[in-house]
Fold:
Amino acid sequence: MAPHALISGAGIAGPALAHQLTARGWKTTVVERFPQRRDEGQNVDIRGVAREVVRRMGIEDDVRAANTGEIGTRFVRADGSPAASFPVSESGETDGPTAEFEILRGELSRILVERTIDQTDYRFNTEIAAVTDHGDHITATLQDGTDIDADILVIAEGLRSRSRRFVTTEEVNDLGMYFAYITIPRREIDDQWWNWQHETNSRGVHLRPDNLGTIRAVLTFISDVRGLEELDQTAQTSILKRTFDDVGGAAPRILAEIDAGAPMYFSAVGQLSNRSWIKGRIALLGDAASCNATFGGAGTSLALIGGYVLAGELGDADDVPAALARYRRVMEPFVDDAPQVRAGVLRLANPRTRTGIRVLHAGARLAASRAVRTITAVTGKGLISIANSAPLPDYPDTDVRLP
Structure:
């Protein structure tokens, strides 16, 4: 009988692991608390060793085809004039904010789910309520009352994972920065740059292209108040209006689209430095295991690398606990080298005053300036070097692909 993996989370890490395990002969079941695959989300990028993982999975062409078309990052003033620009290099080896493999989170999730939907049992609108580890297998009881027996349970959820409690009670470190992601109609004036407009009081207005004919807008701000991400959308909309009512440039356009009912997702920046990834036959994967910051794409690359390593170490599942221990050891250098975003660095990249913004823009025009390195660190883009800090392991049938 084929070994069975129960995976919680149908975003990116979960389907990526299902892809790799199914191709190696495993039976896979993915549970997701949302009623359907979530196609919302902003840009994520795939860098360094994670690009090799994508190639070995056989989805590189799909990822390229779904590229957002973003040609670089540009700091702009409220009147739209550029203050500094960071184009993507032709080699794709830039360590700047925009990667060669720039894709919407929802598009990457779609690719992975489509590649696994015929081989994996996806169960939406439910989640894991209880787990019993019998030593030689686990039994998970779902919220709908269903019991599932499996050789392993993998929690492949996000930073705010509800199921991480089955492994650890580690707390998320909130950094006091909020992001509102809004999808708005594209206009003729919109270009292919990530346009980042700095405003006083540590506020930011962003417009980014996508491959679906719309624009991905982002409003960011730093606050000493915690828990705003837990409010309902009406309250969050009110907060955004009060926070950005005096801002020009693209802000009025974005606020008008929010009023018109544009899709919006509101989140808080957080971190998780969790050393407890494994408990018996239960393992954590992706942001549920470790997260240096909930934006910037670094987590996506680490999720892809983690899915590849976990599947490779599990192999034919002769000794699951030993395989899980090896998975944690192999992933350690990738995770430990990830840049740790600090609250102080967030404030450096999002100045409070006009003078601070002018200094940041002036410094950003100098290619080797501290400002450039700060922005690179804050947006999580150091991953191209981190992901190359350790070699990607080779496993039997390394090029594991599905139709």
Notes: Residues 380-388 have pLDDT under 50 and may be disordered. The chain has twelve helices and 19 strands. The chain has three domains: 4-67+102-170+274-340, 173-270, 343-378. The longest strand covers residues 173-185.
